[in-house]
Amino acid sequence: MFESCRAHGSARPPRIGSGLSRSSRWADTRPCLHTRANWRGRSQRSPRLPRVPLYLTERDVEALLTSADSVVVIEDCFRRLAAGGVENMPRRRLALPGGYYAVMAAVDSELGYAGLKSYTLVDGTLAFVVCLFELPTGKLAAVIEADKLGQLRTGAASGVAANYLAREGAATLGLIGCGRQGESQLAAIRAAMPRLERVIAWCRTPERLAAFCERTGAEAADGPQVVARCDVVVTATTSKDPVLRGDWLQEGALVCAIGANDPRARELDNVVLERASFVCCDSREQARLESGDLIEPVEGGVLDWLEVHELQEVVSGEVQGRGSARDMVVFKSNGIAAWDVAIGAAAVARARERGVGRDL
User: Fold this and answer.
1) Which domains does the chain have, with CATH numbers?
2) Of the N and C termini of the chain, which has fewer Cβ atoms inside 10 Å?
3) Using CA atoms, how far apart are residues 63 and 357, in angstroms rounded to an integer?
């Protein structure tokens, strides 16, 4: 269900896993998947792959990709977006009895794939699929069950945001929301911030909170105010009303809001946006359609769309998201199809390499 200005300059932090140091916490975090160049190369060689489409199940995807893998893949996706190598179509929803049908698509010229993600929500149940097509031939390359894929890419985007936008020395992570998306957020941010010292979590259901903390090693908070005192704060909820208030946040916090992708839903109150020195999202075009966390503040005069950047601008070095350690920064994530194509291509490359999946 989760699919998140004030520019300062052009300096940019090091790429994840580059071996350079933004501070001592940015030790080499390169996951064991060879290099980005190899990922690109394998994807670009897609015309040489067997012409029979590949089918990957949720279990296949879980076995093929880690959160650390996904952070690298999505960071590179942001870089291609900034370079103009990706065309992205925002999500569209069509009404169904008891729910809706959503469609989103992208073309990644560098990867050599076009892709479509579609899913249904009916009576509270979600079902996802990603279809990839080879650009040189136009043939169907893969069909991928995409619930886990979506969790990985959404978490990875916040991992990239944490790498580029968290303040120097950030060591604490707070999570509001204890579902599967919360777990993916935690795993990806841990991969991007290997020197993370403390994780604090809260949700409205005590039993779910206890189970989440047992699975992840997080500490249980007795309210969202405690979570909001962390260096990085993630909201991953289904709430229609704000769960994070700006006056709870400490100076220098990074907020990653990933839960509300409906113009009628909000996770952040206006004070969060009023205090933010820098606001960015994954796609302004998509945010204008479905990001209540930005739409309502803009309509109320708290924010202007000219002040909302895209994270790709920070990744590419076009703008610097953080001007000082005291700046409060917001990343509003809605989830875009370009990520689905990128993470799907990575899964297919790994599957072909390992002989995983079923030919259709």
Assistant:
1) 36-150+338-359 (3.30.1780.10), 168-334 (3.40.50.720)
2) C
3) 11
